[in-house]
C-alpha cells in the first residue's frame, strides 16, 4: 500500500514538472547560426569577397561601405528570423539603375555563399538563407 502511494506521488510529481516546463519555441535560423556575431561575420566576409572580385567590386566603387555594412547586417538578420528591423531602401530601389546581369548576380551569390561558409554555416543553413533571398532576385536583375 505504502509503495503504491509512493509510486502514485512520484508519477504525479513527474506529471506536474512536465506541465510546468514551458514548451520551447523552435529556434530561428538566426539563433541556430549564432546570432548577431555570425551575421556580422558573414557581412564582413562578404565585403572582403566583393573587394577581391574586380568584376563585382566595380558596382561598389562609389558605395558608402559603412552604410552598406549596417544595412546588409539588418537585412540578413531579418532574413534569418532575427530580432532586427531593416531600415534600408527596398531591393528594387537600391539595385535600380545598376543593370545587374545574370552572370554578375550569380557571381555575387557565390561570394555570399563563400562568406557564409567562412562564417561556419553548414550547406543546409546556407541554402535556407538563399531560399529567403531567392524571391528578391527579380527586383535586382536588369533594373
Ligand atoms: C544576393 C542578393 C543581394 C542582397 C540580399 C542585397 C542586399 C543589399 C542591401 C541590403 C543593400 C544596402 C541597402 C541600402 O543601402 O539601403 C545593398 C546595396 C547594394 N547592392 Fe545589393 N544585394 C544583393 C545583390 C547584389 C548584386 C548581385 C549586386 C551587383 C552585382 C549588388 C550591388 C549593390 C550595390 C552596388 C549596393 C550599394 C548601392 C549604393 O551605393 O547606394 N547587390 N544590397
Automatic annotation (TrEMBL):
The keyword Metal-binding applies. CDD domains: TrHb1_N. The keyword Signal applies. Heme binds at residue 95. SUPFAM superfamilies: Globin-like. This is Hemoglobin. InterPro entries: Globin-like_sf, Globin/Proto, Hemoglobin_trunc. GO terms for molecular function: heme binding; metal ion binding; oxygen binding. Keywords: Heme, Iron, Metal-binding, Signal, Transport. Residues 1-25 form the signal peptide.
